[in-house]
Protein 1
Amino acid sequence: QVQLVESGGGLVQAGGSLRLSCAASGRTSSRYVMGWFRQAPGKEREFVGAISWSGTRTAYVDSVKGRFTISRDNAKNTVYLQMNSLKPEDTAVYYCAADRGTPDFPRAREDSYDYWGQGTPVTVFS
């Protein structure tokens, strides 16, 4: 089992930045792809991005490419989501998730992920 706890969400003006963190505990010796998802009010949860175990491969949804960056520090069992140039449409609850299936290949499918955090809210105002 892996427990995931997100932090770093909050209120930010459009154009600003936030960095989300996701700390993993439990069975962290396994190799996991780590993903970020978000769910806006009244909408389904969507894939934001993911990073391979080694950190050498990343994948992003088109709407955040060039603005968001995922990184990880395996020594700290933590993955980060740096969000720049935030827009009101980025407002959502952000979730991190762990995928134990294919450590070297980030996947976008929600059902690929085995463990989920509780989410951290991000509100971007104009």
Protein 2
Amino acid sequence: QVQLVESGGGLVQAGGSLRLSCVDSGRTFSNYAMGWFRQSPGKEREFVAVISRGGNTASADSVKGRFTISRDNTKNTVYLQMNSLKPEDAAVYYCAASTSGGYFHTPRFGYEYDRWGQGTQVTVSS
């Protein structure tokens, strides 16, 4: 079964950094746009960042300038570098894979995604 497996979450102080990774066990990673979403208790899942098959990126306004998404197709891995973390960034972070749209499409809605990981917890202490 093809899986997405996230890692890199943990506890960090406000202002600190974490790098999340998501490995795709499938063989067609480069055919997918890859996104990161997050969900905290009592809140809806929200879009964080996405990188298209062609390598262009988009991110939520709340994380612009602090979070960077990247991918390494040779390792079937997408990364989310998170800097200057704030307590409101605390959530379970999910990676997801999408075949929606064209080569440079950056899907931002959950329904555009075909596969999801199990999530990794990020906790930010103030």
Protein 3
Amino acid sequence: QVQLVESGGGLVQAGGSLRLSCAASGRIFSIYFMGWFRQAPGKEREFVAAISWSGGSTYYADPVKGRFTISRDNAKNMVYLQMNSLKPEDTAVYYCAVSKGAYGSGRYVPQGYDYWGQGTQVTVSS
């Protein structure tokens, strides 16, 4: 099992920035990818960004490319999502997730992930 705890959400005006953090504990050695997803009211959970735990390769959804940056600190078992130039459409609950072995398109869908945090609310006002 891997336990995940997100933090850093909040209310911000459009154009502002937030940094989300995700602390991982438990069977860290089983982590292959870590990702961020988001879910707005009435919508499906969608991929935001992912990072490989060992090599650090990063992947982004098109709506956030150039604005969001995912990073990791293996020594602290932490993953971060720096969100800049926020827009009202970024409003959602953001979830941190761990994949034990997603590859290819699997890293972009919730079904490719095995453990999830409880989520943190991000609200962007216009």
